[in-house]
Sequence to fold (92 residues):
Amino acid sequence: MDRAIDGVDSYVVSQGRLVMGPDGGPLVEKKFSDTIALRLLQAHGGEKYRDKSSVDLNVRADPNNLTDEQLADIAAGGSGSLTRQAKNTEEP
Fold:
């Protein structure tokens, strides 16, 4: 959390060597993590910063029109893959 809000000190390196500042000491820069800050906002910032997604679980399928294979797949914990061809039923 410190990296997101306060940043962390990191030495500046150029061509594999430590860069010295005007005072003769090593040059230090603050590094922040935008990713951590974003995750903190999503977790604690309310609806404004949360991912906007929804899933519609309402499926209109007549179980009488599913193939035996689809019914067995659903019984085994699968999805039944409703994109497969359903049984062809004729009405009298």
